[in-house]
Structure prediction request, 383 residues.
Amino acid sequence: MSKQLGQKIAPTPISSDIGVVDLINNYFTAYNSARLREICQLLSREVLTEGVTVGVSLSGAMTPAGFGVSALSPLIRNGFIDWMISTGANLYHDIHFGLGFDLFAGNPFLDDVKLRQEGTIRIYDILFGYEVLLETDAFIRKVLQAEAFQKRMGTAEFHYLLGKYVREVEKQLGIKDSCLLATAYEYGVPIYTSSPGDSSIGMNVAALALEGSQLVIDPSIDVNETAAIAYSARESNGKSAAVILGGGSPKNFLLQTQPQLHEVLGLEERGHDYFIQFTDARPDTGGLSGATPGEAVSWGKIDPDELLNTVVCYTDSSIAIPLVTAYVLNQCQPRALKRLYDKRGAFLDKLQKDYLAAKDKPSVAEDKSEEVATYPCGTPVKK
Prediction:
């Protein structure tokens, strides 16, 4: 009998009192249910341990569906998420809950022309009033006029300050279950946005620029800070995990930390130790959202020796997030908070010091000759 055979499938009837751990461990037997089981077990046994720095990327309209409050915030409070990269839209719609606005589960097959006439916004089967957008915009613009925002900053600092104001509103309204942005502020989890202009938050930043605001979001700060976080994760024999919910730009921004270290900065790096993704994107179209862990190895994004610690589950994140959250909250002890937001400066200082030291050393492949090469465009360059 083949040694490649796995666990025997021995089906038994599901009982009426089954718990989520029993359900996933014993009844998610094949196909993408098995991949989800493998992810849950990998998270609980290896990833959510003290020596691993866990980065999570978030795309798709997850927070309007409530998953920021219901799933991601509890993971942060238990120390299971150390840093994040999110679309701006997820953070914008997350604020609705922090401000006490109502969103509703509806029907995806309504008349959108009529909805527009009635002032109702639809995100597939999520419905809410147009005034929710207007009032959220007004809140953001008011907050961003504060003196603390009148400078150049990265998105981690920007979201930290914004989360501080949202948390104050939650307290005033008596909201006990904080939204993602407010929870990240409270627990020192830095949240980055790979495309800060691509959301209603960025649109309001741009509007204030027309009024003379001094706020400037600097993407270079984000690139260097996220690389510094990944770089620091390896200290004291630590490991780095990339947990990807969806795909898109946040996925790449999380994974590009490794090429930034070895390809651009010239620092030795082996790639993330763990790669976990939930996606509905196919790999054969060439898009980043569907790119496999093997492909990521070719870029140096994933440690080639850790391919056994990579799992991709092809399913809707809205199915996966609540299941995985329930599983790990049941199976894992809370971890000590890393509060990486407070350590960004120290991490960046070390990265800069090591980069400048490496930059001064001649590369092994560096050609010291004075021969002149020519790029295809015809520009002469000295080798």
In short: The first strand starts at residue 52 and ends at 58. The domain at 20-382 is CATH 3.40.910.10 (Deoxyhypusine Synthase). The chain is about 45% helix and 15% strand. Residues 168 and 199 are 23 Å apart (CA to CA).
